[in-house]
Design brief:
two-stranded antiparallel sheet, mainly beta, five-stranded antiparallel β-sheet, 7 strands, Immunoglobulin-like
């Protein structure tokens, strides 16, 4: 069984998504089902989730994204959701 929960402030500027494997013996996997409009995320643009436990970063698209949680390795994700995805075009280069 996987449990998920999202918390955010009133301005939707600080969004945290927690996904936890409640089965201590088996890997669990599944698809997220996020309400993007309620979270202030555009449906047609990618967004980044940064796992605060492992420091991994993923680019997600849309409301459905796959997660897999192995209780022996990574039993949970604590994602900070970033609305604006940075690309190379966002950085200044100095020669």
């Amino acid at each position: 069984m996987v449990s998920r929960n999202a918390r955010f402030d009133s301005e939707l500027s600080n969004l945290v998504l927690v996904i936890v494997n409640l089965d201590p013996n088996h890997t669990q996997s599944g698809w997220t089902a996020l309400d993007l409009a309620a979270l202030g995320l555009p449906a047609d643009e990618p967004y980044q989730v940064h796992d605060l436990l492992t420091d991994a970063r993923y680019i997600w698209h849309g409301p459905r994204n796959f997660v897999m949680l192995d209780p022996a390795r990574v039993p949970a994700h604590v994602f900070r959701v970033r609305r604006r995805v940075h690309t190379e075009r966002d950085f200044d280069y100095f020669g």
